[in-house]
Design a protein that fits this description.
The protein contains ten helices and 17 strands. By secondary structure, it is of the alpha+beta class.
């Protein structure tokens, strides 16, 4: 029932000092004290609910406070709900985690497959030239990581794109069946996109992938720029013509173009792809730290453009929602704070000569299996040096 019903359906009466009907208009009311008013009969003391105005004034004040609080809460919920719905609508979902016969069972904890692709979608020819991305069509894997979020600490494991693995039998979009074959792991994405890559990772590791996230070049650059750059400390200068990297040593704020060059650079490093994966892990942790900082979350002029550019260019599986993405970024932030570990899948031979694919990278399966088992069982992940 409405609060006004007790007043006969009308508005509640005004406090006496504002009611023109209470006494002669314009007349000055006698001032009350804690006792009786001079020259007037004793009346109720302040705070009495049975008084002739004071109780009504106190009730009105409380009612205003309640009403104000209610409006604020409803307003915040409306804004928050609207923002949540808007952000949810930005998610690009795809059926990338389809079940299949022999798929590894769901393990303990949560496992993400995080993919950086070299898709040029959304980039003009001028952008491609400026960002040193080349002009290839389609998309290939530029980075690949499995993030395990669990009760024994979070672990981010990079999988080299040249890893020589078994690509399981699969059926393409035209219904053509392909037999099991041995290739570099990035061939799985080139041939069958996300679904085949997920199946290949699961087949070779035994790890059930719970969520999938993929971002291309354009989205990466826009997110970094909308955040106002990301702080990184480099222990040496990096100059690489192919990626466009030209960065000084020391701490600095990288814009989107510089950040993309940093995570793609490898030719200057002695360990090539392994060093690049380490750069990618470092930057992803720093990016997550900046994106989840209070300075970003509480600043709508930073938060909304970042959400807009980031979510618009992000491909996720059908079961991923905003809370899942928040969990992923918070885990990344924890890794930067030292609560967890980053690693590369154990390697036996970084210059493995394949029968038909040139030089590839061969895993150390005795060590790798221990890591995979830890991911599956949510136990402490062992450390190995490559």
């Amino acid at each position: 029932m409405s609060d006004t019903s007790q007043w006969g359906g009308g508005e509640p009466p005004l406090p006496p000092e504002l009611n023109p009907r209470n006494g002669t208009s314009g007349a000055k009311r006698p001032r009350r004290t804690s006792g009786t008013a001079t020259g007037a009969p004793a009346g109720p003391t302040l705070g009495s609910r049975n008084g002739n105005g004071n109780g009504q004034r106190k009730w009105s004040r409380k009612r205003k406070i309640r009403l104000t609080a209610t409006v604020l809460v409803v307003g915040l919920l409306a804004v928050g709900g609207g923002s949540y719905a808007w952000a949810s609508s930005k998610l690009n979902k795809t059926n990338v985690l389809a079940d299949y016969a022999g798929r590894p069972p769901v393990g303990k904890g949560t496992n993400w497959l995080i993919l950086g692709s070299d898709s040029r979608q959304g980039l003009s020819t001028t952008d491609q030239q400026r960002l040193h991305t080349g002009y290839d069509t389609g998309a290939r894997t530029d980075s690949m990581m499995v993030l395990h979020i669990g009760s024994n600490g979070d672990t981010l494991m990079s999988i080299p794109r040249d890893s020589y693995v078994t690509i399981p039998a699969w059926t393409d979009s035209k219904g053509v069946q392909h037999h099991e074959s041995r290739h570099k792991i990035n061939a799985a994405f080139a041939m069958g996109d996300g679904p085949l890559l997920v199946k290949t990772v699961e087949y070779n590791t035994g790890i059930h992938i719970d969520h999938y996230a993929e971002i291309g070049f354009s989205g990466f650059v826009n997110v970094v720029d909308d955040l106002g750059g990301v702080d990184m400390c480099l222990d040496h200068a990096i100059v690489d013509k192919d990626s466009g990297a030209n960065l000084k040593a020391g701490c600095q704020t990288l814009n989107g173009t510089q950040a993309l060059a940093f995570v793609r650079e490898r030719h200057q490093e002695a360990t090539q792809d392994i060093a690049r994966m380490q750069h990618q892990q470092q930057f992803l942790n720093a990016l997550a730290h900046k994106a989840t900082s209070m300075g970003t979350i509480l600043n709508p002029f930073t938060l909304y453009p970042t959400l807009d550019s980031g979510l618009s260019m992000l491909q996720v599986d059908n079961n991923t929602g905003l809370t899942d993405l928040a969990s992923m970024f918070l885990a990344m932030k924890d890794l930067k704070s030292g609560n967890g570990k980053t690693m590369t899948v154990p390697i036996a031979d970084a210059n493995y000569q394949t029968p038909a694919d040139g030089v590839a990278l061969k895993w150390n399966m005795s060590e790798a299996q221990q890591v995979f088992d830890a991911f599956k069982n949510d136990t402490k992940v062992p450390s190995f040096s490559n």
